Amino acid sequence: MIRNLDITALRSFVAVADSGGVTRAAGFLNLTQSAVSMQLKRLEDSLGLELMDRTGRRTALSASGEQLLGYARKILALNDEVYGRLTHNAFEGEIVLGVPHDIVYPAIPPVLQRFNADFPRVKVQLVASYTRVLKEQFARGKCDMILTTEDQCDAGGETLATLPLVWVGGQGGHAWKQRPLRLAFEYRCFFRNRVQEALNRAGIPWEMAVESEQTRPIEASVSADLAVHAMIEGTEPPHCEIIQHGGALPDLGGININFYHDDTGKGAMSDELAALVRQAFRGPMVQAVA
Q: Which in 189, 197, 229, 268 has the greatest CB count within 10 A?
């Protein structure tokens, strides 16, 4: 049989223990002395224990009461923390987080999950787009914070990590061996020009075999071994893999993952989300590809 402790009775019990008597506890709790006494009696009856030593003039705890006191403090502290966290107006609102399509996974879902656990009443609107678009939206105040993939970092931003850009193809595929090399890229992909320039310097002929406004058609084409693509290491989607070309394709260098955060007006909840984002890209994701 499940039995539950009475939070109100526990609060009266702790107040009596802290104040040294029922009279002072009643004043502290804004209750009558009889109400506090009744709550103590109800708590003792529910536990089947005497919590107060009533043999002397002063109110004192029994051995069982001393044992309960530590638990009671923890229970009340947790109760007050939960109630305050879920009902306090300071933890309500909305934060708009902008992230490039190609770095949403694997880092961002755990960030959102952790933040939601700590701030369940705050709505996080995730905007997935291209770096150029996200920077424009941030400049207009449409996003509270954004991640970008760039060669450099503009004033007001911070570089969280520099990760290698790698060639990606279908699992066990051979498209990377074809000449001209068949490429698949979104029209506005930041990596597109870098890849083309690297191939030109290496003297490798290429053709843009697949183009799209969306990421999914690119991923499908690459996974089908119709073309190759370039991505930040560690972000390659299922059914695709890093091409082990042994130097047959040029090195693509590294890409900065930058973070821009407008910390005005959102307070602690914005600071907490920013801290989680920083941790995600400076921690496990970076270590996994280092």
A: 229
Crossing angle of the two packed helices 268-282 and 108-118, in degrees rounded to 10: 150
CATH code at position 56: 1.10.10.10
DSSP line for 45-103: HHHTS--EE-SSSS-EE-HHHHHHHHHHHHHHHHHHHHHHHHH-GGG-EEEEEEEEGGG
From 64, 87, 110, give the residue that closes a domain.
87
Check if the beta carbon of residue 262 is closer than 8 Å to that of residue 279.
no
Half-sphere exposure of 212 (CA within 13 A, CB side): 13
* Structural domain that includes position 276: 91-290
Contact 257, 160 (CB under 8 A): yes
Phi/psi for 95 (5° steps) reads -125, 130
CA atoms within 13 A on the CB side of 281: 28
Same domain membership, residue 118 and residue 83: no
Q: Which long-range contacts (CB under 8 A, 24 or more apart) does 80-86 make?
A: 85/118, 85/119, 86/120, 86/121
Question: Is 280 within 8 Å of 274 (Cβ atoms)?
Answer: no
10-residue block means of pLDDT along the chain (290 residues)? 88 88 84 92 92 80 92 91 69 88 92 89 93 94 95 94 97 97 95 96 98 93 97 91 97 96 77 93 52
As a whole number of angstroms, the distance between CA 85 and CA 123 comes to 15
Give pLDDT, residue 284: 44
3-state helix, strand, coil in the chain (%, to 5): 45, 25, 30
107 shares its domain with 169: yes
Prediction pTM value: 0.66
- Please give the tally of structural domains in the chain: 2
* Same-domain status, 80 and 97: no
